[in-house]
Amino acid sequence: MADRFDELDAWLDAPVEPLPAPPGTFQRIQRRARRRRAGKLMSTAAGVVVVIALAFAVPFVASGLHGPSGSGKPTAVGTPTSASRVRSGNSSGPVNSSTKHPAPASTLSPTGSASPVPANFQPTSVTFVGPNVGAVIGQAGTPGQCATRYCTSLAGTSNYGASWYGVNAPVTGPPDGPSGVSQIRFLNMRDGWAFGPGLWVTHNGGATWTQEQTSGLRVTDLETAGDEAFALYASCTGTGSDYGSDCTSFSLYSSADSSDQWTPVPGPSANLSAPAGQAGSASLVLTSGVGFLLAPSGEVLTGPLTGAAWTVANPAAPCNPGPAGPAGQPTTALLAADPAQLTLVCTSAAPGTDTQLKSVYQSVNGGTQWSAAGTPPATGIATSLSAQTGGGLLLATDAGIFRSVNNGSTWQLAQASPTGAVAGQAGFSYVGMTSFQNGVALPADPSLHEVFTTDDGGNTWQARAVSAP
User: What are the beta bridge partners of residue 264?
Assistant: First the structure.
């Protein structure tokens, strides 16, 4: 009888023939493999798209005016720069205005912030670098109880003034003769200047500020365009907040956006003297690659926005700037420019009244020739002029904002003086357009804690609170 274990071994040792797969099996396997490969490719492509999107999005934030970082609230009052660069005030690092504890550096953010600004913010100047991003500078808080011995503050907005948040400010006081600041200009998301009469610069959106030397001269005006900043350095003896008064000469300087060096602009734009025996002022405007300067004598100078030489376009405009008013600005000649033409409003006040004779002149050839264009209302003392492409003009006065849509031929009151303004500070100190439709205006009374904005070309205006009283 055969051994059953031998039979089992023989069966196990015999060659095995695999059963054939059901019809279509290999085709199904191939389809599934293709789907898996496609899925991996799509996941990889999606990852690449995310990386590319971040590569384009991050530099806009990282190179610009950042929002606050960390968990602390942004600092708005008397924020020092880094200890290695600070030249006045506390150098122990950023200090929160209310708690006096260290806080993260805060900058102007294109995405906004919910952090509040200090109470009693009193804006004296405003700047915008895009359709929505801007800042105001002024004094805030309670004197003697600020983060440092100074109460100079900055507030930023990323929604055109609908809401505001604190931003690091230069450690310096309000205008006091040759020192302090009252005005603000940003060229882009990084480079900005606080001035009037001192001069401070930031190249990181306001995270840190550095004081720049002016050799005893006072900066009465500063404007930015392209990749340059231009400033008027003046020799003045005015005291207190009247830092721009009693000025006898002006010189035009320029600086590249990322530079801390200011150099005189070549040509006749140096040592521009006021009329003999008189204190004077000057006005600077920039537009479409060209700058214009109304000298204290009434000369009109023009030049490229590159730091190259400027020349005299006209030795005598229809009027000269006259004595300086608030913030060093002219009182008898207001200059504005749009890409098509220059506009000049000449004024003559009637003593003892709130009326002023005003005449509009325009030039379509860079100030070489001027023609009369209209007569604004005599009501109110003029403080600021803004021009729009297409013949629009806005004139700020102590009676409100007047608007013309036909090059100054006719005018209408677009915004009355803000309610609640204290005596002697009615109306508006500044008006300007940041686009064809958007504009901003500052009440003459900073204790109102607000700015005004328009989104319909200056036809209507809305009050925007910067802080609580």
Answer: 253
Distance CA 138, CA 432 (A): 18
Per-residue pLDDT tens over the stretch 186-212: 999 899 999 999 999 999 999 999 999
Q: What gap in Å lies between CA 286 and CA 225, rounded to an integer?
A: 7
Largest distance between two CA atoms of the chain: 144
Considering only residues 100 and 287, tell me which one the structure prediction assigns the higher pLDDT: 287
The pLDDT of 142-148, averaged and rounded, is: 89
What is the torsion angle, in degrees rounded to the nearest 10, for the CA atoms of residue 155, residue 158, residue 163 and residue 168? -20
- Running DSSP on this structure, what letter comes out for residue 179? B
Taking the C-alpha atoms of residue 148 and residue 90, their distance in angstroms, rounded to an integer, is: 6
Q: Determine the Cα–Cα distance for residues 266 and 254; give it in Å rounded to an integer.
A: 10
Average pLDDT, the chain: 81
CATH of 332-469, one of 2.40.30.110, 2.130.10.10, 3.40.309.10, 6.20.20.10: 2.130.10.10
User: CA–CA separation, 454 vs 437, rounded Å?
Assistant: 7
Q: Would you state the pLDDT for residue 182?
A: 97
Helix, coil or strand: residue 413: strand
Q: In sequence order, which residues have a C-beta less than 8 Å from that of residue 73 and are 6 or more positions away?
A: 96, 103, 106, 115, 116, 166
| Residue range(s) occupied by CATH 2.130.10.10 in the chain | 332-469
> What is the sign, positive or negative, of the torsion defined by CA atoms of 54, 57, 62, 67?
negative
**Partner residues linked to 363 by β-bridges:** 342
Q: How far apart are CA 181 and CA 347, in angstroms?
A: 28
Which tokens in the block code for residue 96? 């929160």
* Lowest mean pLDDT, pick from 70-74, 209-213, 360-364: 70-74
Number of alpha carbons in the 13 Å side-chain half-sphere of residue 204: 12
For residue 45, what is the enclosing H or E element? helix 25-62
Gap between the Cα atoms of 84 and 452, Å rounded: 38
**In the β-sheet with 122-128, what is the strand arrangement from edge to edge?**
122-128, 134-139, 152-157, 165-167
Residue 422 region by backbone torsions, left for phi larger than 0, else alpha for psi between -120 and 50, else beta = beta
**One-letter amino acid of 171:** V
Residue 176 DSSP label: B
Structural contact between residues 269 and 308, judged by C-beta atoms closer than 8 angstroms = no
Q: Is the pLDDT of residue 231 over 50?
A: yes
